[in-house]
Amino acid sequence: MAGPDEGRTLRFLEALASAPAPNWAHRPMFLVAEVKGRPVSALGGYFDKEHGAASLEMAVPAAAIAIGMDLGELAVSWMTNGGDTITKVAPEHVPGAWIVEHVATLPEFRRQGIIDRLLTAVIEKGRSRGATVADVGVFIGNDRAQRAYEKAGFVVTGEQCNANFEAAYGFPGVRSLSRTI
User: Fold this and answer.
1) How distant, in Å, are the alpha carbons of 52, 75, 125, 156, 158 from that of 178?
2) Secondary structure, 3-state, 23-38
């Protein structure tokens, strides 16, 4: 959304994570794993109704303004950098699903079971909030991530592909996985 400049993108994400309007990128939605005080892995969990795409309607413009973007520039950047294609591959969640998203681990900490522990914790958080199903999306072709989710009990429920998404992000689309919790 903020364009191809990595520094600007990181400032935008920081503003989005600390925006006054809670959203799926808001800090309280995330569990973070640390090693010797260093954040090495994180993921988010939320209900779509509370913090899904609709919650971004206030948070995204506020984050853009916080980094010095005007709303016209934000709209152009969204269209130019493939943001509009995300909606074409976004997983469809069953009502009331606990959504697990934005899973990331620093490369040197992968394959150490950190995500397994974070997934267990975020799923328990969803269960404690009343969810009976959890959903996660994975870029088609990110086989390592898909295997990690399948190891945690998720099964493939569908996929959405889009040529424009692939041109922008290098993946043909998103595969949806789900599990009971």
Assistant:
1) 17, 32, 16, 7, 10
2) CCCCHHHEEEEEECCE
| 146 Cβ neighbours under 8 A, 6+ residues apart | 138, 156, 175, 177
Q: Taking phi first (over 0 means left), then psi (-120 to 50 degrees means alpha), and beta for anything else, what does residue 3 get?
A: left
Q: Say what the pTM is.
A: 0.85
Which letter does DSSP use for residue 90 in this model? P
Confidence tier at 147 by pLDDT (50, 70, 90): very high
Q: Give residue 31's Cα distance to chain centre.
A: 12
What does the block give as tokens for 115? 């995500």
Residue with tokens 């969640």: 93
CA quadruple 93, 99, 100, 102: dihedral, nearest 10 = 80
User: Considering all CA atoms of the chain, what is the largest pairwise distance in Å, rounded to the nearest integer?
Assistant: 44
pLDDT digits (tens, 9 = 90+) for 150-168: 999 999 999 999 999 999 8
| CA distance to 15, 48, 57, per residue, from 160 (Å) | 29, 18, 23
Name the 3-class secondary structure at 142. coil
CA–CA dist 43, 120 (Å, integer): 11
CB–CB of 84/120 below 8 Å? no
